[in-house]
Amino acid sequence: xxxxxxxxxxxxxxxxxxxxxxxxxxxxxxxxxxxxxxxxxxxxxxxxxxxxxxxxxxxxxxxxxxxxxxxxxxxxxxxxxxxxxxxxxxxxxxxxxxxxxxxxxxxxxxxxxxxxxxxxxxxxxxxxxxxxxxxxxxxxxxxxxxxxxxxxxxxxxxxxxxxxxxxxxxxxxxxxxxxxxxxxxxxxxxxxxxxxxxxxxxxxxxxxxxxxxxxxxxxxxxxxxxxxxxxxxxxxxxxxxxxxxxxxxxxxxxxxxxxxxxxxxxxxxxxxxxxxxxxxxxxxxxxxxxxxxxxxxxxxxxxxxxxxxxxxxxxxxxxxxxxxxxxxxxxxxxxxxxxxxxxxxxxxxxxxxxxxxxxxxxxxxxxxxxxxxxxxxxxxxxxxxxxxxxxxxxxxxxxxxxxxxxxxxxxxxxxxxxxxxxxxxxxxxxxxxxxxxxxxxxxxxxxxxxxxxxxxxxxxx
Length: 461
Description:
Elements: H1 3-25, H2 35-39, H3 58-61, E1 84-87, E2 93-96, E3 104-105, E4 112-118, E5 124-130, E6 135-141, E7 149-154, E8 159-164, E9 170-177, E10 180-187, E11 195-200, E12 203-207, E13 213-218, E14 222-227, E15 232-234, E16 247-248, E17 254-261, E18 264-271, E19 276-282, E20 289-291, E21 297-301, E22 311-317, E23 324-331, E24 333-336, E25 342-348, H4 354-361, E26 373-379, E27 385-391, H5 395-401, H6 405-408, E28 421-427, E29 433-439, E30 446-450, E31 452-456
Antiparallel strand pairs: 1-2, 1-31, 2-3, 4-5, 5-6, 6-7, 8-9, 9-10, 10-11, 12-13, 13-14, 14-15, 16-17, 17-18, 18-19, 20-21, 21-22, 22-23, 24-25, 25-26, 26-27, 28-29, 29-30
């Protein structure tokens, strides 16, 4: 090939390449695409439409509206829901969110408060307060302009413990009286002074979901249904048993108690509609128990010592002939998550401190000098046990809350409303009372502020 021919060939080859490239860009007929391919959104130059669109139906033009764009995807907020009520270092009632932000101090003055309890249906908080002249029950709203409402006060008969009715209309509480502990019922709006329904000592109770009755356990042998008008109906059960708070299943079909006979003490679970015992087993220690709020499952401790309320944590389920062991060590308190999927529990932090365990067994309430505790979690689906954190509770939690945890668990929540986190009252390394939030997903516990006696709201906002 001559040089001149080579110069002619190069432009021809270049022109031929352009023609082939354009031919490749022409869309060839294809078989129908799959639904997934039809939904794929083209990007860049591929977004140019090359196929004619069908003409719209004239009858539908007026009825069709421009479709609203899909809202942007939102990432789930990892923070626990609800708010936390606590007592600050000045003895005043305050609230904050799960991050320690948006703090509000609701009370002020010389009255000192303790053990705040949220209403089950609102952002109202009932709290015990006392000063040099009297003690009483107060209601605060979780708002910036809350002034507080005194619904009970007395110079001598101080309230000891309070518990809302499920509908939030009344606050029930026990206070000292000449006849032992008096069981009071007072409207939360302060419309009347309320009344004393009955007396007894000791005195424990659980409100039924119908808001019309409480199951009370008073003295040593008194297990009765108590109406709002003070009428009492004995169950005839729980004779000579040693237990504290009574336990009614969420569907009102079962209640549990301890009974003593010539054969010894037993835990019994009675099916009320059938009037028969659904479960019975030997139980020599003090019975501490609580029902799953979402299922027919009873958790209870099974102490080795006759004078102790703590031991391995067991679970009975409806239809079972035996109870399964969930935690095979000394559990000194436990708390159901609101969704019923987990149980939080406390044990002594150092399992080698057997002498401390023995001291706890011989004393009620616990008098040990502020031991360290470990917070653990039981997953009810997998039965896996995880230990989350080690902490030192304030003296008030050790001497008042833990020994009566089965009663407090019904009125004062450690769990967040979404069942993802737990709030703890602790002593810091600098010997300062602080509030800890612990996530059950394994994250480290975090301090969200200084204060004592902290409890989570039952409402998510």
